[in-house]
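Justification of computing resources. Each target in the renewal requires a structure prediction run like the one illustrated here; the chain below, 240 residues long, is used simply to show the kind of job we budget for.
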Amino acid sequence: SDGLIIYPTNNEAIETTLAMGCWSEKLTTGQDKAAITAGLTSGEGQQFDVYLAGKKQGTVNWPLMGLHNIHNALSAIAAARHIGVTMTQSCDSLSAFRSVKRRMEIIGKVGGVTLYDDFAHHPTAIATTLSGLRAVVKQQRIVAIVELGSNTMRSGVHHDKLAPALQEADKVIFYQAADLTASLATVIHAIGQHATAYTTVAEIIDAVVIMANQGDHIVIMSNGGFDGIHQKMMTALTTQ
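Resulting structure tokens:
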């Protein structure tokens, strides 16, 4: 009886499910037409105001970027409010948050090239990661390196969604692992000439070292170890 369903607006699947029957209190979050909303004060989403029913409750200023992180913050603020934590307190606490590993974690910077590690391992996560980065880096080049690590990704279930998810990347490199059960040919064709695939990590590193220019942002997206590519890439970029 004291439960609360917190969910984002503009999600048709959730709305359809709740319409089937919901007997708990509901609270929406989002950037518009929601009970709890965010108003961006920086284009990259690293600073935003939080509102309840249109009234400002506080400001979050943190190192995270992208709309997906803002949505996560609003959900956390809503949940904390339900158990008695004021929204102002939550905003202050989130402003002190320093993120977690593998969520757009900067591995290093060398020669004006920034290397990131991100846990994105399905099309929706890939799209939100890249759109968040694009908001920050503007016109600078984004190179997305993708390992299809999950069972669904490896089987090809999401192949039709990969090209749209990767549209913010200027260059896309896939790791065509030997045990990948589905061909990447149709995905690469859909993306176009700026997409390619390699069968070894060494080939990927060699390709990136050759193409990397000052101002580039290289995002490695995988839910696994990816054969230690992160440090190997940093070493290669440093010694080129």
